[in-house]
UniProtKB/TrEMBL annotation, chains A, B:
Organism name: Catellatospora chokoriensis
Disordered: annotated segments: 212-241
Keywords noted in UniProt: DNA-binding, Transcription, Transcription regulation
Domain HTH tetR-type: start-end pairs: 7-67
InterPro entries for this protein: Homeodomain-like_sf, HTH-type_TetR-like_transc_reg, HTH_TetR, Repressor_TetR_C, Tet_transcr_reg_TetR-rel_C_sf
Identification of the protein by name: HTH tetR-type domain-containing protein
PROSITE patterns: HTH_TETR_2
Low complexity composition bias: residue spans: 218-228
DNA sequence: ACCTGAACACCGTTCAAGT
DNA sequence: ACCTGAACACCGTTCAAGT
């Protein structure tokens, strides 16, 4: 009972911290401000969150927990992979200030492992050889995180005319910009671009997949539908539960 | 003369700040610490760097300046693109603490534009249609930045046995991890993996290229080697200088 | 068991002042 | 023209103390 209370209080504190980051940015996320929002003295936070660094790790946990339901999406491997990717990007829009923490902190919490596991599963179901699965998982998650962060931090943003102006002002120093002035004049649609990049990565994945393994359904169903001899390696556990 | 002195002093301050970040991390990068390293009072920095935020932008500038020579690499489009990508990753290893700033600040300085221009040029030379060039440039630069940051911040890192242990401890919650336990047991070579991902992106690029445009040499030579009728759009300026 | 209050060693930045 | 010093409003975190 007391233990449960501690966990609940911890979540209460982390939720307040994430809300504060959402509303006023990472710079405004001080232990003192979080404490004030929870209605307590700064020192009262320490037994629950350790210190500020651990509090930031806690925010990562909280965001991963929000993302996790996407890992349960049913359907073909590419449907599942797309769902997780789009959920990952949507998370960035919901928590633009805290989101970059995902890229800078090791993903070793149970929820992070579960999420990675769902991506591993999708890649395995796509027919990717085991040796390539972790690498392609990192390729996809790097894309999702990097793209979303580029978007929210404004790295891609200079859709305002000033960048274009500056680029052409550079003149001979930026000839390719001049050659592309037509397409650079119209700002891109970031939703469309994200999906296009994801499509490109899906092609990369299928290009690495075994020729015979074009199964697009979850492992159990695929295993049931295929003759056992098409399995390239023994599957240990979990297939029937 | 006085103007030049100001620029030189600014660079001196930024160089000291970058060195400080390299040696003691971003958290240790205070205005006071930079000032002490330069041998001056904190307030003396302000006329040169504006404020702390602008100082961080200055570090981005400094890193881009280090990266820029890679944009001058000669050779075929893919050679040039690879050179820039590998230089971008090498930069991360040289400045692990400051590097993530590249992902979080808009790239609108002249050096940034020059770098993007070199990537645009490589993609154009690859035969990518103009409409796809900016998107694929963002795909490539997102990969380089995201991968390098994942590497230096330890997001990929749990090559230590603990992650694997934790994943398998999760048991039924991480079945794909179990299925992959063989490949997950051996830590990846990050150099090789970076290159493999880059190869994948090069394939994406060529898959988007015009069928006839497999030119692998800089624009001027390619333009000279091909009949003018194969050009899909008029090239404005720069081609002959 | 849970929280508070005072204190310490830091921050970034302002302002008025020095030479 | 270039820099300093004192001051202000903040930080994260410690410690001893309250109830």
């Amino acid at each position: 009972m007391a233990e449960l209370g501690v966990e609940a209080r911890r979540r209460e504190i982390l939720t307040a911290a994430l809300a504060l980051a959402d509303e006023r940015g990472l710079d405004a996320l001080s232990m003192r401000a979080v404490a004030a929002r929870v209605g307590v003295t700064p020192m009262a936070l320490y037994p629950y969150v350790g210190n500020k660094d651990a509090l930031l790790d806690g925010l990562v946990d909280l965001m991963l927990a929000e993302l996790l339901p996407a890992a349960g999406t049913p359907g073909a491997w590419d449907v599942r992979l797309r769902a997780i990717a789009h959920a990952g990007r949507a998370l960035a829009h919901r928590h633009p200030a805290a989101y970059p923490l995902l890229l800078s902190r090791p993903a070793v919490t149970p929820d992070a492992v579960r999420l990675v596991d769902a991506l591993y599963r999708a890649l395995l179901d796509a027919g990717v050889p085991a040796a390539q699965v972790p690498r392609l998982e990192r390729l996809v998650s790097t894309y999702v995180l990097g793209y979303a962060i580029g978007e929210i931090t404004g790295r891609f943003a200079p859709a305002d005319p000033r960048r274009h102006a500056r680029a052409t002002a550079a003149g001979g120093a930026a000839p390719a910009h001049q050659e592309l002035s037509g397409v650079l004049a119209q700002p891109p649609d970031w939703d469309t671009e994200f999906t296009a990049g994801l499509d490109d990565l899906l092609h990369v994945i299928t290009s690495h997949a075994h020729a015979h393994a074009t199964r697009g359904v979850p492992a159990e169903q695929a295993a049931a539908a295929r003759p056992a001899t098409t399995r390239d390696r023994p599957i240990r556990g979990s297939a029937s539960r």
